[in-house]
């Protein structure tokens, strides 16, 4: 799904969450990396990953337990949620000492190639550092067992530092997902469907690879 392609993963750091006014929530975080999976402490630098989310639930001031997918609780009044999220992370390759392969495998181009793979942006050129930014918007509703949600993504890769010349200064990929579900038998049987799409940067397509891929 597009969600897996665009989103950051799991970092270690500090975070804060609170309710500004009934139904309006925020979450902010500062972490050591956008993904700590498989990363050694000796590989980390002093650059921080930062992120924030805000969401508003205007009609019922809630969106079910933990904002979960599906209207398990069967809202008798339309529950709505609108939000946005953003993350910025300076990413590095984390080169393997044994194979010279990148250990940072989370950031992919629209054709699924790891941006840190040699030749990903130009023949024989290896990207060592890149800035990753994302901005997404989401909206959802729940009513009498019916659930509908969508999210729209924007991701920028820029500030490339490589061992050669790369033909692009910035890559802007976009995408979305839509999910719908309902309970024909309340709290016992749910039917759902989901679709997503990733749209690669057309301006960078001629210098990278095929610019679109299904989510």
**What is the percentage of strand-forming residues?**
over 45%
Which word captures the global form? elongated
Gyration radius over CA: 20 Å
Order of helices and strands: HEEEEEEEEHE
Which segments are poorly predicted (pLDDT under 50) over 5 or more consecutive residues? Answer: 209-215
* Count of individual beta strands: 9
Description:
By secondary structure, this protein is mainly beta. It has 2 helices and 9 strands, in the order αββββββββαβ. The protein has helices spanning about 1-5, 200-205; strands spanning about 15-20, 25-30, 50-55, 80-90, 125-145, 145-160, 170-185, 190-200, 210-215. The protein has a 9-stranded antiparallel beta sheet with strand order 1-2-3-4-5-6-7-8-9. Strand 6 and strand 7 form a beta hairpin. It is elongated. Mean pLDDT is about 85; it is low at about 210-215.
Summarize the topology:
Layout: H1 2-6, E1 13-21, E2 24-31, E3 49-56, E4 79-92, E5 127-143, E6 146-162, E7 170-185, E8 189-199, H2 202-205, E9 212-214
Antiparallel strand pairs: 1-2, 2-3, 3-4, 4-5, 5-6, 6-7, 7-8, 8-9
Question: Could you provide a short overview of the structure?
Answer:
The chain is mainly β.
Feature tags:
nine-stranded antiparallel sheet, 215 residues
